[in-house]
Here is the input.
Amino acid sequence: MNVAAVLFWSWALVAGRVQSAPDPLAVARTQFERGDYRAAITTLSSAIDANARDAQLWHWRSRCYLELRDYARALADGERAITERPRDSEYRRWLGRAYGGAAEEKRSFAIARKVRAAFEEAVRLDPSNIAARRDLMEFYVEAPWIVGGDKRKALEQVDAIARADAVAGHLARAIFLVRTNRLDLAEAEYQHILDNRPNRIEPYLEVADYDESRGDAGRFASVVEQAARVAPADLRLTYYRGIALVLANADLTEAERLLRLYLASAPPRNDWPSRADVHNWLGRLHEQRRDINAAVDEYQSALTLDPNSKTAREALRRLKRVAP
Here is the structure.
């Protein structure tokens, strides 16, 4: 290369006109966050072809497949991620979640035991991983004893979480108490969460979910507005505010607008309210309007998206008895 060329490229680099290619993992993470999981898979697959030893690539492609409920591929990639990075607690935790989806789909005790093993290993690798302890606690409290369910061990995880983080501890204990049908005590734990005024939205949404399940429309609306003060731009608020209006049977036009806005704008994520949930609430909204045909359409949409939706199935059975 001659002197003139060297000078040109040096100047171009300084001026920022020669830019490195974008990091494929960063691109894939952006695609993942907006819910474009197939595009993220394409990005990650190309990166894996170039660097098959990068555990992050396998882990995030596993996460994409998990969102798409393609459990076989999620497990294959999750296993490869921990092969490349065997001491990563989070990779173990997400592998456990992939096993959980597969166990539920196949109704397999053998796979369910792998869920427990993955969560236990995630906690062993990093005892400070509160999310892993929470997943393990929920497994212990919900699973039958034959695959390792154990309420005493669940309570041990609750205590460990509480020692690390007060709000997370109250949330874990509340879930434990709900699962063991001690609702009065659970109610006290949820109130402790509100009293602590957490600075993250997720604790408020967990309390709101509990209030919705109990039909407590008043506190539900209050909790949603407390959540809004913490994270006013969070898209999930459109869903929760829509539910608040349906529960109160007030301004159903605005409720429908909010719920449909959530359908149109929120990414499809397993840890966010599902599209089937939205259609179930739209069905309830139309029932309150006494528009039975529209309600049936919404519940059928919910059932198409989630064939296991008990809410939709029971609503359709009920509406068949009253349909003209």
Remarks:
- The CA atoms of residues 109 and 147 lie 6 Å apart.
- The chain has a mean pLDDT of 93.
- The chain has four domains: 22-85, 87-181, 197-264, 274-324.
